[in-house]
């Protein structure tokens, strides 16, 4: 998988923040010329497709500063240092929804923006979910509102752009297929 | 859609590059406390689900420096200044695949990484594609290899992580549904 490899000539750190790091790499292109690549390093994330007993999907509405609007997403969150993604997934499910499960299943992983970022998101399926007696705490800068919706309602939310992000758009089509078969 | 709005107290430009810009916004959180948001501004992108007459999908393999590997994706590219997304979509289809179409259809748009970036990707469907007599030029730092695959082959490529990005993962499940109905 090293086809068209771009070898790093030098890598310059432009910004190191709380969550993301920005590098500009000077690279040797496959044609022997030089180029520059702006790269965001991100710790990676998880997202959880959580289904209730009556086959509704749990979604969370939150404000996304980058978009300057609130959108509705499947529960998700960043991986903490040295945390295994399945632990992050269970933690985020508990923190954001107040539910937990003993049967978390891995679905697949994908890069969100391979053109400029190394962020990978790992998707999980949570079925047989049960309400926690005491809801886990959210991060101190996190404000979310929960909703339980049918697949049909989710379709409407995509049409009116309330659902407006890649992982949740993926989740809708993945679920449509999954619920047909299960 | 302004629920949990985070008002900007001040916005600091940390990096302005060729493609991305990095800002750190100090914000007023809904609980009255202050927080910081690291934000990447990106011009936005398009991606095209292109289907051949024999119901194969056109994919492109390219090296992604951010991931330090090559992956297989649906044709995609950045929106140029003042370019309408459907123009970008047709241009990228022509440049990356050597095909064109008179029936480009808009599917939907989504944010790729709403936690830290404003990048929106607009998805289009290209059917009834015809080969250009002369292939359009790629960008000078762009190297891609074309492939035509069946949905079944694409499924295998997801399993072995050759297909490894959000828009292409979405495209697979969207297509699975679409091809059943058409």
Automatic annotation (TrEMBL), chains A, B:
Protein keywords: Hydrolase
Cofactor: Mg(2+)
An annotated Gene Ontology molecular function: hydrolase activity
Domain named Nudix hydrolase: residues: 40-171
Signal peptide range: none
PANTHER family referenced in this protein's UniProt entry, alphabetically: NUDIX HYDROLASE DOMAIN-CONTAINING PROTEIN, UDP/ADP-SUGAR PYROPHOSPHATASE
GO biological process, one term: nucleoside phosphate metabolic process
Annotated Gene Ontology cellular component terms: cytosol
Lineage: Bacteria, Bacillati, Bacillota, Bacilli, Bacillales
Protein name according to UniProt: NUDIX hydrolase
InterPro entries: NUDIX_hydrolase-like_dom_sf, NUDIX_hydrolase_CS, NUDIX_hydrolase_dom
Cross-referenced SUPFAM superfamilies: Nudix
């Amino acid at each position: 998988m090293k086809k068209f490899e771009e070898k790093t000539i030098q890598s310059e750190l432009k910004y190191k923040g709380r969550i993301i790091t920005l590098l500009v790499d000077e690279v040797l292109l496959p044609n022997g010329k030089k180029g520059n690549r702006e790269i965001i390093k991100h710790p990676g994330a998880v997202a959880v497709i959580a289904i209730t007993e009556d086959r509704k999907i749990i979604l969370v509405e939150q404000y996304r500063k980058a978009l300057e609007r609130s959108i509705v997403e499947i529960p998700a969150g960043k991986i903490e240092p040295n945390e295994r993604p399945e632990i992050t997934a269970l933690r985020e499910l508990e923190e954001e929804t107040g539910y937990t499960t003993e049967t978390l299943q891995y679905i697949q992983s994908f890069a969100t923006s391979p053109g400029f970022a190394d962020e990978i998101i790992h998707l999980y399926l949570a079925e047989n979910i049960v309400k926690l007696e005491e809801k886990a705490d959210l991060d101190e800068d996190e404000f979310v509102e929960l909703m339980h919706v049918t697949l049909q309602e989710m379709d409407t939310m995509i049409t009116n752009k309330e659902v407006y992000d890649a992982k949740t758009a993926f989740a809708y089509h993945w679920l449509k297929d999954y619920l047909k078969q299960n």
